[in-house]
Each structure stands twice: as C-alpha cells, then as structure tokens.
Amino acid sequence: MDKMQKILITTSSFDLELPEIKTLRESGYEVVLNPYGRRLTEAEIRELLTPDIVGLIAGLEPLTKAVIDAAPHLRVISRCGIGMDNVDLAAAKAQGIQVFNTPDAPTKAVAELAMGLILDALRGISAQDRKIRAGEWQRPMGGLLGARTLGLIGFGRIGRKVAEYAQAFGAEIIMHDPFATDNPHYVAFDDLLAQADIISLHIPYSKESHHLIDRKALAKMKRGSILVNTARGGLVDEQALAEALQSGHLAGASLDVYAQEPYQGILTDIENITLTAHVGSYAQEARTEQEALAARNMLIGLQDEAGARIYG
Prior knowledge:
With 312 residues, the chain is of the alpha/beta class. 35% of the residues lie in helices and 16% in strands.
C-alpha cells in the first residue's frame, strides 16, 4: 500500500488484542476507534468516514444511503452483530461494498438475557431488590414459567434458542413468524397476542415492523401478561406500553432496547418494568466471539477486494 489505509471500528467497545486485529495491522492497515464511546449519529459517522477509511467494523450507527454515498472509498462493512436494519444494503451493493454480519455469535447471550428478563418479570426480582433497599419488606406472589404460555414473535436463531431454554422449564411455546408457517408452534399474530402469558420479541426492525406492539396490539394481549423486548426498540410504542403498565393491563415488562438510546423516557418512572442498557450480546464469551468474527470478516472482505490473501 502506498498510503496507510484505515479500518474504523465504531462499536463503543472492542478488544484490540484479538489476533485478527493484529493481522489487520500487520497487513498494513491502521485501526482507529470510535472517539465518542457511544452509538454514533448519522452526522458523526459520516464525518468519521474519511477518504482513508476502506473498512468499517460497524455497530448500530445509521449507515444510510447518504452516509454510504458520501464514502466512495469504503470497500467493506463488517457488522459486529446480527441485525442489518441500520445498513442501507441497496446503497452498499450499488457502491460495490461487501457487507458481513455475525449472526451466530450473539445468539446464546441474547437468548439467556431474554430468559433472565422473563424470570425477573415473573418473580419480581428487580422490584423486590428496589423495595428492600428502600426499607420495605414485601413478599409478592410470583408465577412459574412452566405454567405459562410463551409467545415468540420471530423464530430465527435467537427465538428458537429462547424456545429451547423455556421448554426446559416446561413452558408451552407458540410463535409467529411468516417465514416459519409450517412449524407446529406457529399461530396467527392476533392469536399469539390473545393466548400468550408472556410475549418475547425476536425480529428485526423495519418500516413495516415499526411499533408492531402498539396500543391496538397491547389491548389484544391477555390482562396480566408480560412483554419482553431484546430485539429492537422501534418495535414497541413506549408511550402505549407505559399506559398499559400503569393501568394494570400488563403485569410487567422487561426491555433491553429503546427507540432512543441512552434511554431517559417515561418508562423510568414505572415500577413494574425492568430496564437494561442494550446488553443482549454483552456476555464476555459471546462478545469476544462476535468481535473476532467481525474482524475476520473484515479480513476476508479486504482479501477479496485486494485480490490477495492477507489472512490465514
């Protein structure tokens, strides 16, 4: 390379000691990090994609058509994660950019968090912790997962893993996924809303799925049911969810994702909800595997683009 080319990593954290990162550096690429330590805005990522950036190991920043069109030098986008809803794939294809993701690495981590949030909602674990710390001693009656029907919206890798875990507890599983209508657990969307004691979301975000769980959907859910979302924040109308929780129509909810992050909205004032900070994939083993795969995909993409093997 006549001029040092760069790989930009925009996730808020990344292990720079990975062997794959060492290989990138030994191959002549400079690795640069997100200077903000948080999810980037569209303007920020556009500014960071300077002409010497040829590869992007991406987080959840909006890689819109405007961003991609403004970076004609970009050759590879390697998403550190599963979802691709933040990437304009058509714009990337038009520009000849190779796009990768890491669909397998976060599966167990996200599924385990979903299970933790389900159990937390059923037994009021976080709520009891807050009460005791405030000097209150209460012993609320919880419920068994094995006595409940779990409805999964989305039955991809993570949805299937949650089903596997929940079945070990004895839960009945129903699911809705237009790509799995021949599955014996499949039911229509409205039937899932009406039948499930717990609903867990495992689908990508799109214009079509925006506020999939809105006032109308929440009203169709069982009184006393629970909503869990470890997928994408835009799937749930947060204002409508707040109202359903405050009215007692829903017994509880657990969210790991939000329309705007960091989250500071109305749900922070509601007692019967547990909120986590988009940490679904943040289990050390899963995160390391995910970052290694993202870096490896970058190596593969640059190898193909350069027409020379730089890895292995």
